[in-house]
Amino acid sequence: MVANLGKREPPAARRGTRRRPRRESALVWWALFAALAGAAWWLHSWRVALLALLSWCLYQFLLVPTMCRILSQQGAACTERTRGRLFACGPRHQRLRNDALWRLAGLRNPFRKEPPRDENETGVVVVSSDVRGRLTMTDRALILLAAAGTVAALIGMVYGFR
Predict the structure, then answer these.
(1) What own/partner pairs with CB < 8 Å and gap ≥ 24 does 98-106 have?
(2) Measured in Å, how far apart are the chain's first and last C-alpha atoms?
(3) 62 CB neighbour count, 10 Å cutoff
(4) What is the largest CA-CA distance in the chain?
(5) Model confidence pLDDT, tens digit, residues 139-150
(6) Rounded (10°) angle between helices 46-58 and 26-43
(7) How far is the C-alpha of 129 from the C-alpha of 96, rounded, in Å?
(8) pLDDT value at position 71?
């Protein structure tokens, strides 16, 4: 055995866990949105207000730290962390999330050829794939609000060029 020579070794990781990178606080994002809203009010500029709205929509769609929350076949929610309300933790869960987003729009997923099959799960289906990919009420409400905000920002931009 060789002596440690004064170097610190990290503590041994517990079995079944992995180290996750540290993410910025959500307060940083909300401070940015508040600064943009304050600038819009201070400058009396609806263009800056549209920029603030569009940045909040981008944050909700792509950047907000959240959980996957796709249900396993036994009904337990996935607790892996993801970025953005449109994304899931892996390809299998992303297929279910895409189907749920298409259903939110009132359509079937035209790109889905066959129902997804999970190789890691048992053959017993306790919870169907339609239920497994169902969005939570919070995710559904914020995705719809962000979509409406994006449409409003785009209409405001087009209106502003006249």
Answers:
(1) 99/129, 99/130, 99/133, 100/133, 100/134, 100/135, 101/135, 101/143, 103/130, 104/135, 104/140, 104/143, 104/144
(2) 77
(3) 13
(4) 77
(5) 899 999 999 999
(6) 160
(7) 7
(8) 82
